[in-house]
Amino acid sequence: MVDASDTKTKEIYPLFKQSLASRTDIAGIASAELGLGEETGWSRSGFEYNGTHKDVFEYFIDPDYIPLMRMQLLAGRNFDPKIADDTVTSVIVNEAMMNDFGWTIDNVVGQQIKGYMETKTPVVIGVVKNFNYRPLKEKIMPQMFHQFADYAPYKFFVRIKPGNPAPALSAMNKAWTSVVADLPFKYNFLDESLDNFYKSERKWSSIIGWAGGISVFLACLGLFGLAALSAVNRTKEIGIRKVLGASLPGIVKLLSKDFLKLVIIALIIAAPLAWYFMNKWLQDFAYRISIGWWIFIAAGSLALLIAFITIGFQAVKAGIANPVKSLRTE
Q1: Domain spans, the chain
Q2: Could you give the CA distance from residue 295 to residue 309 in angstroms, rounded to a whole number?
Q3: Is residue 13 within 8 Å of 161, Cβ to Cβ?
Q4: Which residues are within 8 A (CB) of 81 and not within 5 positions of it... i.e. 6 or more apart?
Q5: What integer pLDDT is reported at residue 256 of this predicted model?
Q6: Rounded to whole angstroms, how far apart are CA atoms 105 and 95?
Q7: Bridging pattern class, strands 155-160 and 73-76
Q8: Which of 57, 146, 48 is nearest to 96 (CA)?
Q9: Residues 277 and 187 sit within 8 Å (Cβ to Cβ)
Q10: Is the pTM of this model over 0.85?
Q11: For the chain, what percentages of helix, strand and coil (3-state, to nearest 5) are there?
Protein backbone atom coordinates (compact mmCIF):
# COMPACT_ATOMS: atom_id res chain seq x y z
CA MET A 1 0.00 0.00 0.00
CA VAL A 2 1.51 3.29 -1.13
CA ASP A 3 0.51 6.32 0.93
CA ALA A 4 -0.41 9.14 -1.45
CA SER A 5 -1.88 11.51 1.14
CA ASP A 6 -1.31 15.26 0.72
CA THR A 7 -0.98 14.94 -3.06
CA LYS A 8 -3.22 15.58 -6.05
CA THR A 9 -3.92 11.89 -6.36
CA LYS A 10 -6.36 12.11 -9.27
CA GLU A 11 -3.52 13.52 -11.35
CA ILE A 12 -0.70 11.45 -9.85
CA TYR A 13 -2.28 7.99 -9.90
CA PRO A 14 -2.62 7.58 -13.70
CA LEU A 15 1.02 8.65 -14.16
CA PHE A 16 2.22 6.35 -11.37
CA LYS A 17 0.29 3.40 -12.80
CA GLN A 18 1.50 4.06 -16.34
CA SER A 19 5.15 4.17 -15.20
CA LEU A 20 4.81 0.65 -13.78
CA ALA A 21 2.59 -0.88 -16.48
CA SER A 22 5.46 -2.62 -18.28
CA ARG A 23 6.93 -4.25 -15.16
CA THR A 24 6.70 -8.06 -15.32
CA ASP A 25 7.20 -8.39 -11.57
CA ILE A 26 4.06 -6.36 -10.81
CA ALA A 27 0.77 -8.25 -11.16
CA GLY A 28 -1.54 -5.28 -10.91
CA ILE A 29 -2.23 -1.82 -9.49
CA ALA A 30 -5.40 -0.34 -8.00
CA SER A 31 -6.38 2.67 -5.93
CA ALA A 32 -8.70 3.41 -3.03
CA GLU A 33 -9.47 6.21 -0.66
CA LEU A 34 -8.59 4.14 2.42
CA GLY A 35 -6.16 1.40 3.30
CA LEU A 36 -6.83 -1.81 5.21
CA GLY A 37 -5.43 -2.71 8.61
CA GLU A 38 -4.50 -0.97 11.84
CA GLU A 39 -4.29 2.84 11.74
CA THR A 40 -5.18 3.08 8.04
CA GLY A 41 -8.53 4.76 8.60
CA TRP A 42 -12.10 3.78 7.93
CA SER A 43 -15.34 5.48 6.91
CA ARG A 44 -18.78 4.60 8.22
CA SER A 45 -22.12 6.21 7.40
CA GLY A 46 -25.35 6.01 9.32
CA PHE A 47 -28.73 6.61 7.69
CA GLU A 48 -32.39 5.62 7.77
CA TYR A 49 -33.46 2.86 5.38
CA ASN A 50 -37.18 2.02 5.29
CA GLY A 51 -37.59 3.41 8.81
CA THR A 52 -34.63 1.50 10.28
CA HIS A 53 -31.25 2.98 11.19
CA LYS A 54 -28.37 1.37 9.30
CA ASP A 55 -24.60 1.70 9.68
CA VAL A 56 -22.42 0.88 6.67
CA PHE A 57 -18.66 0.95 6.17
CA GLU A 58 -17.97 2.63 2.82
CA TYR A 59 -14.91 2.41 0.58
CA PHE A 60 -14.10 4.45 -2.50
CA ILE A 61 -12.25 2.22 -4.98
CA ASP A 62 -11.47 1.99 -8.68
CA PRO A 63 -12.50 -0.83 -11.10
CA ASP A 64 -9.17 -2.65 -10.59
CA TYR A 65 -9.51 -2.92 -6.81
CA ILE A 66 -11.82 -5.94 -6.50
CA PRO A 67 -9.88 -8.20 -8.93
CA LEU A 68 -6.54 -7.01 -7.52
CA MET A 69 -7.61 -7.91 -3.96
CA ARG A 70 -9.01 -11.20 -5.32
CA MET A 71 -12.43 -10.62 -3.85
CA GLN A 72 -15.08 -13.09 -4.97
CA LEU A 73 -18.14 -11.66 -6.73
CA LEU A 74 -21.17 -13.73 -5.74
CA ALA A 75 -23.69 -11.83 -7.85
CA GLY A 76 -23.76 -8.99 -10.34
CA ARG A 77 -20.68 -7.37 -11.82
CA ASN A 78 -17.66 -5.24 -11.08
CA PHE A 79 -17.40 -1.53 -11.89
CA ASP A 80 -16.92 -0.79 -15.58
CA PRO A 81 -15.07 2.38 -16.76
CA LYS A 82 -17.28 2.42 -19.87
CA ILE A 83 -20.50 2.80 -17.85
CA ALA A 84 -21.07 6.39 -16.75
CA ASP A 85 -23.53 5.48 -13.97
CA ASP A 86 -20.80 3.54 -12.18
CA THR A 87 -19.25 6.83 -11.06
CA VAL A 88 -22.59 8.30 -10.00
CA THR A 89 -24.93 5.76 -8.40
CA SER A 90 -23.53 2.21 -8.72
CA VAL A 91 -22.35 0.42 -5.58
CA ILE A 92 -21.12 -3.06 -4.68
CA VAL A 93 -22.01 -4.51 -1.27
CA ASN A 94 -20.81 -7.43 0.83
CA GLU A 95 -22.88 -10.39 2.04
CA ALA A 96 -23.29 -8.84 5.49
CA MET A 97 -24.95 -5.75 4.04
CA MET A 98 -27.13 -7.85 1.76
CA ASN A 99 -28.37 -9.89 4.72
CA ASP A 100 -28.72 -6.87 7.03
CA PHE A 101 -30.93 -5.07 4.51
CA GLY A 102 -33.13 -8.12 4.00
CA TRP A 103 -32.09 -8.85 0.43
CA THR A 104 -31.20 -12.20 -1.09
CA ILE A 105 -28.61 -13.28 -3.62
CA ASP A 106 -31.41 -13.52 -6.20
CA ASN A 107 -32.83 -10.01 -5.79
CA VAL A 108 -29.93 -7.93 -4.45
CA VAL A 109 -28.77 -6.63 -7.83
CA GLY A 110 -30.80 -3.55 -8.69
CA GLN A 111 -31.79 -2.72 -5.11
CA GLN A 112 -31.91 1.00 -4.32
CA ILE A 113 -30.31 2.27 -1.10
CA LYS A 114 -32.77 4.98 -0.21
CA GLY A 115 -31.76 7.47 2.47
CA TYR A 116 -28.02 7.07 2.01
CA MET A 117 -27.62 10.28 0.00
CA GLU A 118 -29.87 13.30 -0.44
CA THR A 119 -29.15 14.10 -4.08
CA LYS A 120 -29.04 10.58 -5.55
CA THR A 121 -30.00 7.01 -4.74
CA PRO A 122 -27.26 4.37 -5.00
CA VAL A 123 -28.11 1.16 -6.86
CA VAL A 124 -26.52 -2.22 -6.09
CA ILE A 125 -24.72 -3.76 -9.09
CA GLY A 126 -22.86 -6.58 -7.32
CA VAL A 127 -22.16 -8.54 -4.14
CA VAL A 128 -18.75 -9.67 -2.86
CA LYS A 129 -18.12 -12.49 -0.46
CA ASN A 130 -17.55 -11.46 3.16
CA PHE A 131 -13.98 -10.90 4.29
CA ASN A 132 -12.48 -9.61 7.53
CA TYR A 133 -11.52 -5.99 7.00
CA ARG A 134 -11.70 -5.17 10.72
CA PRO A 135 -10.14 -7.06 13.70
CA LEU A 136 -11.42 -10.57 14.36
CA LYS A 137 -12.89 -9.21 17.60
CA GLU A 138 -15.60 -7.60 15.47
CA LYS A 139 -18.25 -9.26 13.37
CA ILE A 140 -18.15 -8.53 9.66
CA MET A 141 -20.25 -5.40 9.28
CA PRO A 142 -22.21 -4.16 6.24
CA GLN A 143 -19.73 -2.86 3.69
CA MET A 144 -20.25 -0.88 0.50
CA PHE A 145 -17.85 -0.06 -2.33
CA HIS A 146 -18.34 2.82 -4.73
CA GLN A 147 -16.39 4.99 -7.15
CA PHE A 148 -18.33 8.25 -6.92
CA ALA A 149 -16.59 10.96 -8.91
CA ASP A 150 -16.41 13.42 -6.00
CA TYR A 151 -14.02 11.14 -4.04
CA ALA A 152 -10.26 10.80 -4.52
CA PRO A 153 -7.87 7.85 -3.97
CA TYR A 154 -5.22 8.25 -1.28
CA LYS A 155 -3.87 4.69 -1.25
CA PHE A 156 -2.29 2.89 -4.19
CA PHE A 157 -2.37 -0.91 -3.96
CA VAL A 158 0.38 -2.72 -5.87
CA ARG A 159 0.38 -6.53 -6.07
CA ILE A 160 3.96 -7.77 -6.44
CA LYS A 161 4.52 -11.20 -7.92
CA PRO A 162 6.17 -13.85 -5.68
CA GLY A 163 9.92 -13.51 -5.32
CA ASN A 164 12.30 -10.79 -4.26
CA PRO A 165 10.26 -7.55 -3.87
CA ALA A 166 13.32 -5.25 -3.92
CA PRO A 167 13.37 -4.57 -7.72
CA ALA A 168 9.65 -3.80 -7.76
CA LEU A 169 9.95 -1.50 -4.76
CA SER A 170 12.87 0.28 -6.40
CA ALA A 171 10.80 0.78 -9.58
CA MET A 172 7.87 2.06 -7.51
CA ASN A 173 10.15 4.50 -5.72
CA LYS A 174 11.46 5.74 -9.07
CA ALA A 175 7.92 6.07 -10.47
CA TRP A 176 6.83 7.97 -7.37
CA THR A 177 9.79 10.36 -7.52
CA SER A 178 9.09 11.10 -11.16
CA VAL A 179 5.55 12.29 -10.41
CA VAL A 180 5.95 13.61 -6.83
CA ALA A 181 9.41 15.04 -6.44
CA ASP A 182 8.81 16.91 -3.17
CA LEU A 183 7.36 14.07 -1.04
CA PRO A 184 9.04 10.84 0.13
CA PHE A 185 7.88 7.45 -1.08
CA LYS A 186 5.94 5.89 1.82
CA TYR A 187 4.59 2.36 1.70
CA ASN A 188 3.81 -0.66 3.84
CA PHE A 189 2.78 -4.26 3.21
CA LEU A 190 -0.87 -5.17 3.58
CA ASP A 191 -0.28 -8.33 5.61
CA GLU A 192 1.73 -6.31 8.15
CA SER A 193 -1.00 -3.68 8.43
CA LEU A 194 -3.63 -6.37 9.08
CA ASP A 195 -1.31 -8.11 11.53
CA ASN A 196 -1.04 -4.88 13.54
CA PHE A 197 -4.64 -5.43 14.68
CA TYR A 198 -3.22 -8.08 16.98
CA LYS A 199 -0.21 -6.32 18.54
CA SER A 200 -1.61 -6.64 22.07
CA GLU A 201 -2.27 -10.37 21.58
CA ARG A 202 1.32 -10.94 20.43
CA LYS A 203 2.60 -8.95 23.41
CA TRP A 204 0.56 -10.99 25.88
CA SER A 205 1.55 -14.19 24.11
CA SER A 206 5.21 -13.33 24.64
CA ILE A 207 4.68 -12.37 28.29
CA ILE A 208 2.66 -15.48 29.10
CA GLY A 209 5.09 -17.68 27.17
CA TRP A 210 8.09 -16.43 29.13
CA ALA A 211 6.22 -16.51 32.45
CA GLY A 212 5.00 -20.04 31.77
CA GLY A 213 8.45 -21.21 30.74
CA ILE A 214 10.05 -19.77 33.88
CA SER A 215 7.31 -21.30 36.03
CA VAL A 216 7.85 -24.75 34.50
CA PHE A 217 11.61 -24.41 34.97
CA LEU A 218 11.24 -23.44 38.65
CA ALA A 219 8.74 -26.26 39.18
CA CYS A 220 11.21 -28.74 37.68
CA LEU A 221 13.95 -27.47 40.00
CA GLY A 222 11.61 -27.99 42.95
CA LEU A 223 10.69 -31.50 41.82
CA PHE A 224 14.33 -32.31 41.24
CA GLY A 225 15.24 -31.17 44.76
CA LEU A 226 12.36 -33.05 46.38
CA ALA A 227 13.18 -36.21 44.44
CA ALA A 228 16.82 -35.94 45.49
CA LEU A 229 15.81 -35.47 49.14
CA SER A 230 13.39 -38.42 48.94
CA ALA A 231 16.11 -40.63 47.45
CA VAL A 232 18.57 -39.70 50.21
CA ASN A 233 16.01 -40.32 52.96
CA ARG A 234 15.13 -43.74 51.54
CA THR A 235 18.65 -44.88 50.72
CA LYS A 236 18.57 -47.89 53.07
CA GLU A 237 15.07 -48.87 51.93
CA ILE A 238 16.19 -48.82 48.31
CA GLY A 239 19.24 -50.92 49.17
CA ILE A 240 17.15 -53.53 50.98
CA ARG A 241 14.64 -53.69 48.15
CA LYS A 242 17.41 -54.22 45.61
CA VAL A 243 18.96 -57.01 47.73
CA LEU A 244 15.53 -58.64 47.89
CA GLY A 245 15.28 -58.53 44.10
CA ALA A 246 13.57 -55.24 43.28
CA SER A 247 14.10 -54.17 39.65
CA LEU A 248 15.18 -50.74 38.42
CA PRO A 249 11.68 -49.95 37.04
CA GLY A 250 10.25 -50.91 40.43
CA ILE A 251 12.62 -48.49 42.22
CA VAL A 252 11.76 -45.71 39.77
CA LYS A 253 8.03 -46.35 40.31
CA LEU A 254 8.51 -46.32 44.09
CA LEU A 255 10.14 -42.90 44.08
CA SER A 256 8.00 -41.36 41.33
CA LYS A 257 4.42 -42.33 42.14
CA ASP A 258 3.88 -39.93 45.05
CA PHE A 259 5.20 -36.97 43.07
CA LEU A 260 3.19 -37.86 40.00
CA LYS A 261 0.05 -38.03 42.13
CA LEU A 262 0.67 -34.42 43.16
CA VAL A 263 1.14 -33.41 39.52
CA ILE A 264 -2.17 -35.09 38.60
CA ILE A 265 -3.94 -33.25 41.44
CA ALA A 266 -2.41 -29.97 40.20
CA LEU A 267 -3.69 -30.71 36.68
CA ILE A 268 -7.21 -31.42 38.00
CA ILE A 269 -7.18 -28.01 39.72
CA ALA A 270 -5.51 -26.10 36.86
CA ALA A 271 -7.46 -27.47 33.87
CA PRO A 272 -10.89 -25.99 34.79
CA LEU A 273 -9.28 -22.64 35.67
CA ALA A 274 -7.34 -22.60 32.41
CA TRP A 275 -10.48 -23.44 30.44
CA TYR A 276 -12.48 -20.71 32.21
CA PHE A 277 -10.00 -17.89 31.67
CA MET A 278 -9.08 -18.88 28.11
CA ASN A 279 -12.73 -19.25 27.16
CA LYS A 280 -13.47 -15.85 28.71
CA TRP A 281 -10.63 -14.30 26.67
CA LEU A 282 -11.89 -15.93 23.47
CA GLN A 283 -15.33 -14.38 24.02
CA ASP A 284 -13.78 -11.04 23.05
CA PHE A 285 -13.46 -12.34 19.48
CA ALA A 286 -16.42 -12.56 17.13
CA TYR A 287 -14.53 -15.27 15.19
CA ARG A 288 -12.76 -17.76 17.40
CA ILE A 289 -11.86 -21.39 17.90
CA SER A 290 -13.43 -23.62 20.52
CA ILE A 291 -11.28 -25.15 23.23
CA GLY A 292 -11.29 -28.92 22.73
CA TRP A 293 -10.76 -31.50 25.44
CA TRP A 294 -7.70 -32.84 23.62
CA ILE A 295 -5.79 -29.63 24.42
CA PHE A 296 -5.94 -30.42 28.15
CA ILE A 297 -5.07 -34.07 27.53
CA ALA A 298 -2.01 -32.99 25.54
CA ALA A 299 -0.97 -30.34 28.08
CA GLY A 300 -1.49 -32.75 30.98
CA SER A 301 0.50 -35.50 29.27
CA LEU A 302 3.34 -33.08 28.58
CA ALA A 303 3.32 -31.90 32.22
CA LEU A 304 3.43 -35.51 33.45
CA LEU A 305 6.24 -36.34 31.03
CA ILE A 306 8.32 -33.36 32.18
CA ALA A 307 7.70 -34.26 35.83
CA PHE A 308 8.54 -37.92 35.24
CA ILE A 309 11.81 -37.07 33.46
CA THR A 310 12.76 -34.68 36.26
CA ILE A 311 11.97 -37.16 39.03
CA GLY A 312 13.12 -40.19 37.06
CA PHE A 313 16.68 -38.88 36.85
CA GLN A 314 17.08 -39.08 40.63
CA ALA A 315 15.10 -42.31 40.81
CA VAL A 316 17.34 -44.05 38.25
CA LYS A 317 20.44 -42.69 40.01
CA ALA A 318 19.24 -44.20 43.30
CA GLY A 319 18.18 -47.42 41.58
CA ILE A 320 21.57 -48.15 40.00
CA ALA A 321 23.55 -47.34 43.15
CA ASN A 322 25.50 -50.17 44.80
CA PRO A 323 23.16 -51.73 47.44
CA VAL A 324 26.13 -52.42 49.73
CA LYS A 325 26.88 -48.70 49.95
CA SER A 326 23.17 -48.01 50.44
CA LEU A 327 22.98 -50.39 53.40
CA ARG A 328 26.00 -48.75 55.04
CA THR A 329 24.22 -45.36 54.99
CA GLU A 330 23.43 -44.04 58.46
Answers
A1: 2-197, 199-328
A2: 21
A3: no
A4: 63
A5: 79
A6: 9
A7: unpaired
A8: 57
A9: no
A10: no
A11: 50, 15, 35
